[in-house]
Amino acid sequence: MALRGHLYREVLDVLRQEIGDGRHPSQLPSEKELQARFGVSATTIKTALAVLVQERRIVRIPGKGTFVQEIDDATEPDGGNLSALRVIADSPKRIGIILPTLRGAIFTHLLFSMLREISEYGWYPWVVLSGSDKEREQKIIRDYRQASVDGLLVWPAEGEQYNEELVQLHLSGFPVVLMDRWLPGFDIACVRSDHRLGARLAVQHLRALGHQHITLVTLGSEDPEHTQSIQERQTGFLEECLLTADKSVSPQVWMRRYEPGEHIADHVQWLASQLGEHPEITAAVGVETYDMECLRQAAEIVQWPIPERLSVTGFDGGNLESDLERGWVTYFASKKWTWIDQSDSEIGREAVHLLRDCMESDGQPDGQPHSRIYAPVVRAGETTGPAPRQGIGESPPSGRLGR
């Protein structure tokens, strides 16, 4: 049978008609059998079956099959996981949320804002954590689809390869919105902060305070080579230092180190040695909160008081549980630290609004930009101050990058 256009819709229409005519009195053929019959992908079959579950025409039970049920049949299927759940057609929308973690202010702000907006719409949220594990993320997406959620909000794990489940969702027209990150080459709706601009604003703030020799610190709580937000921040930093007409800023050294398995003490000692080798540095931008904490401890080792000798700013993030244990939150709160506000709460709210638009227009928000980018803002605090005027060391050699 040749199909065209929105394939899953045509498969859906055929199966819906056959179920109504009694052609499948008890059980549908397997997914593989349906795939072979219609000559379409597994994703197309899954999408059509998911709609039939929503309409209460079928019940899918893992390991047993897909069963036809009467519309007025109130019998619940057996099974204890997501794929055994049914959604009544007129029930509130169910929204799947996938986050890597709840540790860190950025994720708590993001989640709370999403939950508030979802509640306003009268929807039901389901939240699952991926741990930044791509295979687990893929399984969560499959479970959500089996459970017939109406839309997904995803902070995707990153790595060298795309998440195929996300790509398939997009290609099938399923409503999905990405947060913070995106998939180049695929026009998947996303809401994020302008990390590149954020880094430029950080340098501009420090330059306005008279700092000329600024370092960027990337110590690798995430793999910088495969994390888009980190790459954007690095690009913005170098652009502001090197490509602006005003040559008053020199990126003296880019302190970058990614050694999986290293402890914070290793990073702090390495960073202290780097600071000792470059006494001309008066300010630093941390790619993440982890980098800012390492800077604080390294500055204590080399006896550079913050902000009198070393001004420190950076991006929000980090591990809230570890922050509390190590006293980072107490320190930065008491110092009213300077940071780059990435509009976490606004991103959460806008992601829900964009998902609503996607659900109302079959996967993409008609007439609206598919990507919405928020401009970050510098929140000046007490960890940045005027550049010291004396005793800072010699002028730096040009073009040196630390490793």
**Secondary structure category:** alpha/beta
Low-confidence stretches: 1-5, 72-90, 394-403
The coarse silhouette is: elongated
User: Tell me, what is the CATH class of the largest domain?
Assistant: Alpha Beta
CATH superfamily of the largest domain: Response regulator
Strand order of the largest sheet: 4-3-5-6-7-13
Mean pLDDT: 78
The tally of structural domains comes to 3
Tell me what the CATH architecture of the largest domain is.
3-Layer(aba) Sandwich
Fraction of residues in H or I helices: 25-40%
Beta-strand residue percentage: 5-15%
Task: Please outline the major beta sheet.
Answer: 6 strands, parallel
Which sequence of SSEs, written as H and E, runs from N to C? Answer: HHHEEEHEHEHEEHEHEHEHEHHEHEE
Task: Say how many strands there are.
Answer: 14
- The radius of gyration is 26 Å
Query: What would the CATH topology of the largest domain be?
Result: Rossmann fold
End-to-end Cα distance: 59 Å
| Individual helix count | 13
Give a verbal description of the structure.
With 403 residues, this protein is an alpha/beta fold. It folds into 3 domains: 7-81, Winged helix-like DNA-binding domain superfamily/Winged helix DNA-binding domain (Arc Repressor Mutant, subunit A), CATH 1.10.10.10; 94-192 and 344-374, Response regulator (Rossmann fold), CATH 3.40.50.2300; 195-343, Rossmann fold, CATH 3.40.50.2300. Helices cover 40% and strands 15% of the residues. It is built from 13 helices and 14 strands. It has helices at residues 7-20, 31-38, 42-54, 105-121, 134-146, 164-171, 195-208, 228-242, 264-277, 289-301, 320-326, 328-335, 344-360; strands at residues 58-61, 65-68, 94-99, 124-129, 151-154, 176-179, 190-193, 214-218, 254-256, 283-286, 311-315, 338-341, 371-374, 377-379. The strands form 3 sheets. The protein has a 6-stranded parallel β-sheet with strand order 4-3-5-6-7-13, sandwiched between helices. Helix 1 packs across helix 3. The longest helix is centred in the first third of the chain and has 17 residues, at 105-121. The protein is elongated, with a radius of gyration of 26 Å. The termini are far apart. The model is unreliable at 1-5, 72-90 and 394-403 (pLDDT under 50).
